[in-house]
Specification:
Layout (H helix, E strand, L loop, with lengths): L7 H24 L3 H18 L2 H17 L3 H14 L7 H15 L3 H16 L5 H5 L7 H15 L3 H16 L8 H17 L3 H12 L8 H20 L3 H14 L9
Helix pairs in contact: 1-2, 1-3, 2-3, 3-4, 3-5, 4-5, 5-6, 5-8, 6-8, 8-9, 8-10, 9-10, 10-11, 10-12, 11-13, 12-13
């Protein structure tokens, strides 16, 4: 500091830290089911990234905005934000490049665009092969995108696309296994739960209701403080799939599991902060 003013390099660092902080607040708002607040905080993070002139941070915030849009039920917007991030990433080789491609795959799977989904999955694999961890990866946590999370996103995109239930099941099993063996730095309870619910969805598509119940059991055992918006939304997808399966079969297993999911989703994390 000179004469009460920050040097340009110090100002950039401060803007970067402010951007990361705003991004974390946005993720917290998203987890509590408030996409409007989350997107507002993400916009603040982007302004900070812009002021820091940090390409990777710009791309990371676009990733976050895509994530928020995806879970808010706006897959077209999620795909657009992922594309904006990919356009901003330039020569960045950190794991954000992998996240953007995976986000694109998930968004396009909900849009029913199989070609775009498969292209994005391939882009994610190519990006992973050339990753060079950057300063955002050094922060860890939500600032980095480890391999187990990539496997989860790929499985979810395949399951949601619905073209190959057997492939979706095998990919979901791979993601679940990856989280079971993940290091502390790679593990995240929310993403592990997502992989479990994707496995349940894949098994429902194959008519394996008991296998689906086994897959989703660890999710339904989560305490209220871990029932964030994404996890509750994932559980609701399983409920909807079971409802459709119930129309084809009157088996009691599906009905019983639906009731358990209804009880689980009735008390999300957000209920603790009201």
């Amino acid at each position: 500091m000179e004469h009460g003013r920050a040097k340009p390099s110090q100002a950039r660092e401060l803007y970067l830290l402010a951007g990361i902080t705003s991004g974390m607040l946005a993720k917290a708002s998203h987890d509590l089911g408030n996409p409007s607040a989350a997107m507002m905080q993400a916009r603040t993070a982007f302004v900070c990234a812009d002021n820091a002139d940090h390409h990777a941070m710009r791309a990371w915030v676009r990733s976050l905005q895509s994530l928020i849009s995806y879970w808010a039920g706006r897959p077209g917007e999620a795909a657009d934000y992922a594309a904006l991030g990919q356009g901003a990433i330039g020569d960045v080789r950190g794991t954000t490049s992998v996240w953007l491609a995976c986000l694109s795959a998930r968004a396009h799977s909900l849009l029913g665009d199989g070609e775009a989904t498969r292209t994005a999955i391939q882009q994610a694999e190519e990006a992973r092969a050339t990753v060079e961890p950057d300063d955002l990866d050094a922060f860890g946590g939500i600032m980095t995108f480890p391999l187990p999370r990539q496997l989860y996103y790929v499985a979810e995109a395949t399951v949601q696309l619905g073209e190959d239930a057997a492939l979706g099941e095998s990919q979901s099993e791979a993601a679940v296994s990856a989280y079971r063996d993940a290091t502390e730095d790679e593990w995240a309870f929310g993403d592990q739960a997502g992989a479990q619910t994707d496995l349940a969805l894949a098994r429902i598509a194959r008519g394996e209701i008991e296998g689906a119940a086994e897959a989703v059991r660890p999710v339904l055992d989560l305490p209220v403080e871990q029932r964030n918006f994404g996890i509750v939304s994932s559980a609701q997808r399983v409920h909807a799939a079971l409802h459709s399966a119930g129309r084809r079969s009157s088996g009691g297993a599906a009905a019983g599991l639906r009731q358990e999911i209804e009880a689980f989703t009735a008390t999300p994390t957000s209920a603790l902060v009201r």
